[in-house]
Each structure stands twice: as C-alpha cells, then as structure tokens.
Amino acid sequence: MDDPIFRTIRTEAGEGVTYDCGCPCTPTAIPAADGYAGSEHCCCGKVHFAGIGAAERLDAYLAERKVTKRREPEYARGTSSLGFDGRTIEVAWAFPLDA
Ligand SMILES: [Zn+2]
Ligand SMILES: [Zn+2]
Fold this sequence. Notes:
Blueprint: E1 7-11, E2 14-18, E3 38-41, E4 47-50, H1 54-68, E5 75-84, E6 87-96
Antiparallel strand pairs: 1-2, 3-4, 4-6, 5-6
The protein binds zinc ion (2 copies).
One zinc ion (ZN) binds at residues 23, 25, 42-44.
C-alpha cells in the first residue's frame, strides 16, 4: 500500500485535510479552532486525524475501538505533515490492512 498523499481542502465547515480515498467520499479532517486535531473515519474504514496531537489522538481512538468493537481490523499506519493555513500541521492515518 502506498502512503496516502494529503492535501488541504476548503469546506463550508472550514479548512480541512483530505486525500484520495478510493471510495466515493472526500473524507475531511478539520482541525478545531484551537488547532487540535480533527478526524474523519470514512465509511470504507480508513481514518485520519489532522492537527495538533494527531498521532496521539489516533492512538487513543484506535485503542478505544479495540476494546469496544467486536470486529476491529488491523491497520497500516503512518504520519505525515503538510502546509496548512500558513503553518505546518501533523497528519496521522490508519487504513485497514484488508481494504
Ligand atoms: Zn466513504
Ligand atoms: Zn473512503
């Protein structure tokens, strides 16, 4: 699996971070007003966080799912960063290995 390529996208809810998911969606993580990471978990099972603390928040999110979901996949994971609104922000992603 190639690492996803993230890019910024302007939405009605504000500036966000997306990638080509491979499904019909445009999953967009919008950082909170304070800069802390926002996330989107796409219907196809891929999840990404963008903003301050993205990797830590993804860790916590996946750990929570592991104990609460009956069938939780294994994920390929990675981090990235990109220019966003004049600064650099952190992106963390987890894509199901069987997707
Ligand atoms: Zn989707
Ligand atoms: Zn998707």
